[in-house]
Amino acid sequence: MIALIIIVLVVLALIALIVVGYFVGIYNILVTLRNNIKKSWANIDVLLKQRSDELPKLIASVKGYMKHEAGTLNDLTKARTSFLNAKSMGAKAKADGQISAALKTIFAVAENYPNLKANETFLQLQNRISGIENELADRREFYNDSVNQWNIRIQSFPDMIVANMMKAQPHEMYKIAEEDRKDVKVEF
Prior knowledge:
By secondary structure, this protein is mainly α. The protein has a single domain (24-181), classed as Up-down Bundle (de novo design (two linked rop proteins)). 78% of the residues lie in helices and 0% in strands. α1 (2-63) packs antiparallel against α2, α1 packs antiparallel against α5 (120-155) and α2 (70-85) packs antiparallel against α3 (89-109).
């Protein structure tokens, strides 16, 4: 009889250990996902800062050639200022969209200025900024993938139990503003 009680207690202890281990595993996965989101946003932020640091050089190299497009240069300057003043992820994302739209316009308008297109500094800056834009697209995709995995896990059973204990909240995907989806309109 005592042997049976010992066996039952050992089995119950093993089951309890397995359940606790399972929930610890879920917790660790959620911590990893949360940190991936933070890391991926930090990577985006670094690239946004690099791009922002390149913009004054681009504006300076373009200014002399594009006298008739002062509005475009002003838009880019305002967008950069918005980015530098942004405190939240949403505000930075909005400023990012404004900068991307202004850059598309500048690069499109530059086609009408043969001397500018041949300017080595402009070409280097254009290539550098285009490279950063490509890296940003990759990082945004990784960020959204991380957010998607997080949101799925915290809403799925049994992960939601641990997520509720952690007070985990869904994260918002990196989105661009509706006006940034429109084609760049270039008038000559």
